[in-house]
Design goal:
elongated; lyase; alpha/beta; porphyrin biosynthesis; 11 strands; 244 residues; UROS/Hem4; 42% helix
């Protein structure tokens, strides 16, 4: 198959390698760039004042861990949670065991038994410079004291959507690997409107039911839900569909 990889460059390169190993011919076009977040200098102090930490993405963990390593600091011995398996795996690479839900969404995280009784607990959420506030609002309603730490920031590269779409069509693009609602929206904004029917007919692999619902609402008709946002999960989902 000829899948489109739109993750930030480092993850895109790893995903493309895995895809080629399975006989696919991926096209890489990172739609998002990530850089260190402005809150990182305060991370160590925020961790020391937290009872539990929640990471909402792989990037949130990677940038935080890199900063701690660079400054000679370590993760404290407190409770850790991740929205999905990919983020939990990123924590594991840092030597941290984090709980994560089977349902890789904010709603799934909030349903975990360990997050029901949080009255008076100090919660630190590691994330980008924006995002959904459902986790913070819900935990605050349960009595938690919630703070954010923007460990990374998102930037969109300036791309020529018309030229890219023509190139993808010429290359026989037949599938899309999209790991977030944000990347889905970016792709839809990038591809010219007259080419949306072509785009909607590509096989679309997404990491969660929430993103699948967004895609269906946008007009996609061939949607596969992977077991999370990790590169391995995306490749497995594509392989499974290829064998059907």
């Amino acid at each position: 198959m000829v899948p489109l990889v739109v993750r930030p460059a480092a993850q895109a390169a790893e995903l493309a390698t895995l895809l080629r190993q399975q006989g696919h011919a991926p096209l890489c076009c990172p739609l998002l760039e990530t850089v260190a977040g402005g809150d990182l200098p305060r991370l160590a102090d925020m961790l020391q004042n937290a009872d539990l930490v929640i990471a909402v993405s792989v990037h949130a963990v990677h940038f935080a861990h890199h900063f701690l390593l660079q400054t000679g600091q370590t993760w404290p011995h407190i409770e850790y949670f991740a929205v999905g398996q990919a983020s939990a795996d990123a924590f594991a690479e840092a030597g941290i065991q984090a709980l994560c839900p089977d349902d890789p969404r904010s709603e799934g995280l909030l349903a975990l038994p360990d997050l029901q009784q949080v009255n008076g607990k100090r919660v630190l959420i590691l994330r980008g410079n924006d995002g959904r506030d459902l986790i913070a609002r819900t935990l605050a309603s349960r009595g938690a004291l919630v703070h954010y730490c923007a460990t990374y920031e998102r930037h969109y590269p300036d791309l020529d959507g018309d030229a890219l779409t023509r190139r993808w069509q010429a290359a026989g693009l037949d599938s899309l690997l999209i790991t977030s609602g944000e990347l889905l929206q970016r792709l839809l904004a990038l591809v010219p409107g007259p080419q949306h029917p072509w785009l909607h007919d590509r096989l679309l692999v997404v990491p969660s039911p929430r993103v699948a619902e967004m895609a269906e609402g946008a007009g996609f008709t061939r949607i596969v839900i992977a077991q999370g946002a990790s590169n391995q999960a995306l490749v497995a989902a594509l392989e499974l569909r290829k064998m059907e």
